[in-house]
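WARN retry 2 of 3 for item q-0093 after timeout on previous attempt; input resubmitted unchanged.
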Amino acid sequence: MTPGLLKDTTAKPENLPFPIVGIGASAGGLEALEQFLRKVPEDSGMAFVIVQHLDPTHKGIMHELLRRTTAMEVFQVKDRMRIRPNCVYVIPPNKDMSILHGVLHLFDPTTPRGLRLP
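OK item q-0093 returned
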């Protein structure tokens, strides 16, 4: 099993002693995200979840690009990935995402392309 993935998602929200910061960005938001992450200390105690408009037909490389700008670990989200502090999580292309009890869940989009918002 990949590290950080869960079989059981019964964690309680009170077991998360750290803030989860959600960041939405439109296409072209890479520079702003890079500037933001450069200023965040690697031991801030927070987790960052990034949702950005991405072309669903292209491979997602946002996580690779953001790794250059921060000492925090940066992941492209996999379904049922547990959120940890001092990490950055980036939604993959053509997926919707939710957070439940500190776990990221991916699912196929329910809204037609062009009508989705971060």
